[in-house]
């Protein structure tokens, strides 16, 4: 699928003044993703926020596709859109999320949140710009983000961080189970359902 | 032939398949269910054994008024059927039916991930419908849908991962190219887990707790009428096509058959898909609905351990033969 998209890219002159089709598409999708993300945090309707999050995460997947990282794109859809958002919606349905606006959806510390968000975004953008300042992805050549390439890089050069991350996730999983058990030690039957929900994360 | 025309023709063919096969399965369900229950099923529409019954149903649905409840969240309510249906159309693009270049809509490098990811998105449609209807039955249906998806997505992924390990690739045509007949007994447990989990993801009986019509009046679809309801039904049958096609491609060897491999591969794919679709209908007629806790228990205590065991077996055999 990215093959079709990549065909739009001519031999890139590596300049900002003569953008190729893929670069224009990348910027446009990026703007749409950003807009969806802003809608996610500003909308007053809780379930709409979750659905805008779907749009934002899907837009991110399209960006990965445009950068020829097909594997990452589908994993993004599988994990985030398919599982995390479903979990979010499941949680929202358990609450009394109303149809229409929730008047108490606004938090008092929104300015602090905005400051933290801008600082985090600034740091990330700075890191990415500083790290990849002069490197360009050749969109016409063999896909550099294909499953084979990603797998080889991940399991040859980045095995240790990969394993460390999996141990971290395992610790989080075990921690979640422990926390959900601790709340009611004397109430075994009501407790039996709790770890099952935690595992599904 | 230039590229644009080629792409257009492929999309038209996939769309035609998408419109025809679900109807064929729907009609088969009418007739098979009827005969298993000792009756005839539709006999009048179209003349010959009621072949046009679903066309007539479609015309009926199109004529009905499209009602949106006053308390509903209008836009999400109206958008939900499209979100439920379109992912299956996208998945169909990537399913290969024959060995040649022209027998797949579009070769996707990470095919397994693509089809599973996009199939998971379809469930969002049910969740949106369940919440936006502003109806307690719909909300219950949505909740059950979400719980079911969370439980059954994992075994499905693990079973698919086992095949990907065996083939050494995640591309669907690649898996079929690597297929040998002895994969069938080797991956049989994974195949069963995949098929059962897929049935649960489609909310087909015996896993139709989220739409249980006798308890929660069709769950998330309670408030839907006319064409939008028909779209949800179409999504269910398109889901059957996609699930049976994927099981065929991943576990049953797709276009490989005992004979006639050259040129007739697509017949094998369609034949295997049809047999699986028959099994889906058969299960609907023969099994009672599972209770919600039985559903969850089956997924977490049976299917996931089985899928993990299959992955271990695949790994051992793979190392042993290489």
UniProtKB/TrEMBL annotation, chain A:
<keyword id="KW-0812">Transmembrane</keyword>
<dbReference type="Pfam" id="PF00499">
    <property type="entry name" value="Oxidored_q3"/>
</dbReference>
<feature type="transmembrane region" description="Helical">
    <location>
        <begin position="24"/>
        <end position="42"/>
    </location>
</feature>
<keyword id="KW-1003">Cell membrane</keyword>
<dbReference type="InterPro" id="IPR001457">
    <property type="entry name" value="NADH_UbQ/plastoQ_OxRdtase_su6"/>
</dbReference>
<keyword id="KW-0874">Quinone</keyword>
<feature type="transmembrane region" description="Helical">
    <location>
        <begin position="111"/>
        <end position="129"/>
    </location>
</feature>
<feature type="transmembrane region" description="Helical">
    <location>
        <begin position="49"/>
        <end position="67"/>
    </location>
</feature>
<keyword id="KW-0472">Membrane</keyword>
<dbReference type="InterPro" id="IPR042106">
    <property type="entry name" value="Nuo/plastoQ_OxRdtase_6_NuoJ"/>
</dbReference>
<comment type="similarity">
    <text>Belongs to the complex I subunit 6 family.</text>
</comment>
<protein>
    <recommendedName>
        <fullName>NADH-quinone oxidoreductase subunit J</fullName>
        <ecNumber>7.1.1.-</ecNumber>
    </recommendedName>
</protein>
<keyword id="KW-0520">NAD</keyword>
<comment type="function">
    <text>NDH-1 shuttles electrons from NADH, via FMN and iron-sulfur (Fe-S) centers, to quinones in the respiratory chain. Couples the redox reaction to proton translocation (for every two electrons transferred, four hydrogen ions are translocated across the cytoplasmic membrane), and thus conserves the redox energy in a proton gradient.</text>
</comment>
<feature type="transmembrane region" description="Helical">
    <location>
        <begin position="158"/>
        <end position="179"/>
    </location>
</feature>
<keyword id="KW-1133">Transmembrane helix</keyword>
<feature type="transmembrane region" description="Helical">
    <location>
        <begin position="73"/>
        <end position="99"/>
    </location>
</feature>
TrEMBL record, chain B:
<feature type="transmembrane region" description="Helical">
    <location>
        <begin position="229"/>
        <end position="253"/>
    </location>
</feature>
<keyword id="KW-0472">Membrane</keyword>
<keyword id="KW-0520">NAD</keyword>
<feature type="transmembrane region" description="Helical">
    <location>
        <begin position="265"/>
        <end position="286"/>
    </location>
</feature>
<keyword id="KW-0830">Ubiquinone</keyword>
<dbReference type="InterPro" id="IPR001694">
    <property type="entry name" value="NADH_UbQ_OxRdtase_su1/FPO"/>
</dbReference>
<keyword id="KW-1133">Transmembrane helix</keyword>
<feature type="transmembrane region" description="Helical">
    <location>
        <begin position="154"/>
        <end position="176"/>
    </location>
</feature>
<comment type="subunit">
    <text>NDH-1 is composed of 14 different subunits. Subunits NuoA, H, J, K, L, M, N constitute the membrane sector of the complex.</text>
</comment>
<feature type="transmembrane region" description="Helical">
    <location>
        <begin position="298"/>
        <end position="321"/>
    </location>
</feature>
<feature type="transmembrane region" description="Helical">
    <location>
        <begin position="110"/>
        <end position="133"/>
    </location>
</feature>
<comment type="function">
    <text>NDH-1 shuttles electrons from NADH, via FMN and iron-sulfur (Fe-S) centers, to quinones in the respiratory chain. The immediate electron acceptor for the enzyme in this species is believed to be ubiquinone. Couples the redox reaction to proton translocation (for every two electrons transferred, four hydrogen ions are translocated across the cytoplasmic membrane), and thus conserves the redox energy in a proton gradient. This subunit may bind ubiquinone.</text>
</comment>
<feature type="transmembrane region" description="Helical">
    <location>
        <begin position="7"/>
        <end position="26"/>
    </location>
</feature>
<comment type="similarity">
    <text>Belongs to the complex I subunit 1 family.</text>
</comment>
<keyword id="KW-0874">Quinone</keyword>
<keyword id="KW-1278">Translocase</keyword>
<protein>
    <recommendedName>
        <fullName>NADH-quinone oxidoreductase subunit H</fullName>
        <ecNumber>7.1.1.-</ecNumber>
    </recommendedName>
</protein>
<dbReference type="Pfam" id="PF00146">
    <property type="entry name" value="NADHdh"/>
</dbReference>
<feature type="transmembrane region" description="Helical">
    <location>
        <begin position="182"/>
        <end position="200"/>
    </location>
</feature>
<keyword id="KW-0812">Transmembrane</keyword>
<feature type="transmembrane region" description="Helical">
    <location>
        <begin position="79"/>
        <end position="98"/>
    </location>
</feature>
<keyword id="KW-1003">Cell membrane</keyword>
